[in-house]
Specification:
- The structure is a homodimer.
- Chain A is mainly alpha-helical.
- Chain A has helices at about 5-10, 20-40, 50-60, 65-75, 80-90, 110-120, 135-150; strands at about 95-100, 105-110.
- A two-stranded antiparallel sheet of chain A has the order 1-2.
- In chain A, a hairpin with a 7-residue loop joins strand 1 and strand 2 (about 105-110).
- In chain A, helix 3 crosses helix 5 (about 80-90).
- Chain B binds a DNA duplex through helix 3 and helix 5.
Chain lengths: ~150, ~150
DNA sequence: TGCAAATATATGTACATACATTTAATGTAC
DNA sequence: GTACATTAAATGTATGTACATATATTTGCA
């Protein structure tokens, strides 16, 4: 993928301010990263949100997780964890059963098939093929600082 | 909105590397910005993608734009411009008519109602209520540099 | 005890994304 | 000038997001 400065990518002549440019640049780069990762994941038949839920479940394994816990850990708090778990259940990557202690809650558990799939995918995520590259460690730390500061 | 470091926000203990943390931080902050702007726009009855299309159309006005041009300028190239224009047409914010020269293409034109709506919204976007704040001009320029470098 | 409030999850609806396919119109090669 | 490829836009389908509402269960308190 040949990459250009953000002005060229969206064929816009100029931005009003450096702030406005950074805003567009943030959304654009975030989309870019998501799409890149999603392409890598396609052969494995799981979407990015589904992958993220599987990761959380592996973190809990062999303990189950409730849907509430999934929501709490998900990047996008308002997304619909129930329906993402639906898709994973159909694929046999997780199981879901009512918790005996509190029958309102549901125990979601990653299956062996799910664990095996994640193992296959491990080298993709965080590997050199995806994510933040091209930056030095110091630049990456600075990026983290700037992002945290934006949300202050 | 009280904001915390990214580790606390998604209740994760630690990240493997600074790069991994920056990746999550990018997606999280981008979502955060989008949601913030979308909340501001809600009272006006247009979504963020719809707003962005209206902005492009105003940039062309009084000339019309084709759907291809919209796609070219949109942040998310793979999104479905036709259907976003559908929604805007229903709301009377744009008109759509077949172009006489090339009957494959469609001239999309922002209406007076659309222009008036944008005028109302102008102070929100790029104003102090949304977008990149808290950063100095220099920090913002550095952020732009880092983002461009990621996509290199 | 009994009943209202709170909690956990699921469901409904509108919108958008991602991507494949379709339809119509234009361009091009022969 | 007909046949085939190309282009522009729309449509179909699966997924996800955002938000409101529904349903079941538990908790807490009068």
């Amino acid at each position: 993928m040949t990459t250009m400065k953000i002005e060229d990518e969206i064929k816009q002549t100029a931005f009003k301010t450096e702030y406005h440019k950074a805003y567009i640049n943030m959304l654009y780069t975030s989309n870019w990263l998501v799409q890149e990762q999603s392409n890598l994941f396609k052969p494995f038949g799981v979407t990015l949100p589904q992958y993220n839920v599987l990761r959380i479940l592996r973190g809990q394994h062999p303990k189950p997780a409730t849907v509430s816990l999934l929501i709490e850990r998900m990047l996008d708090k308002t997304s619909n964890a129930s329906r993402i778990v639906d898709k994973l259940e159909v694929k046999g990557l997780v199981t879901r059963k009512q918790c005996p202690n509190d029958r309102r809650t549901v125990d979601v558990l990653i299956t062996d098939k799910g664990l095996a799939l994640l193992k296959q995918m491990d080298d993709l995520d965080g590997g050199s093929k995806t994510g933040i590259r091209n930056l030095t460690e110091q630049e990456t730390a600075e990026l983290n600082r700037l992002l945290d500061k934006i949300r202050d």
